[in-house]
Amino acid sequence: MTPNVAADGEYYVDAPAVRAFIAAVEAARAAEPDPARLVERLRPAFSRLLQADGWLPDEFARPYEASGMGGGIGQYLLYRSADRSLTLFSLVIPAGSTTPVHDHLAWGLVGLYRGEQIERVYSPIATDYDAGLAKLELIDERPLRAGEFYTLLPPTDDIHSVTTTSSEPSISIHLLGNDAGCIVRHRFDPDAEAVAPFRSGYSNVPCGEEAAG
Known about the structure:
alpha+beta
């Protein structure tokens, strides 16, 4: 898929609502370097994006059988900054499907655009990533409906899994302070107290091997 390339990055969905949101994000990033204060500053703009209708094309809102997350989960890149320090993407989870327990390794905002979900948040008790060991504690379970959102702020509030509880696929919108689909992150198995590296990829854009690290 060929993006609309602008000075600030690649627009895979070039809609006025997306352009306005990215402009607000970049203005906030320029004014506020602290991630905790930045995500708070971005709440009004992110809420407006979630409430806006008609800007997400159907091809970015469907399950994807070759998913890097499994379970038919589609992860579609909507925007990526020129330096890959910012991405906006949609995550489509079929009815009844659950993401692996995973981390993000960056600040972010995640909000529900359609459907319903339950998010399970984990806290690491002990980790040895080199040895593939990670003991996690489930610290929160929260239901989500369209328009609701939450923040990601590593090292806390960064490890979770999400299940679609609606009868139709859920669609969430993610703003991340990295190239989330192309960097190597972590997939956890809480029951086995195990962790392994993984790259989720994007359903519409290849990463290329140069982005694997």
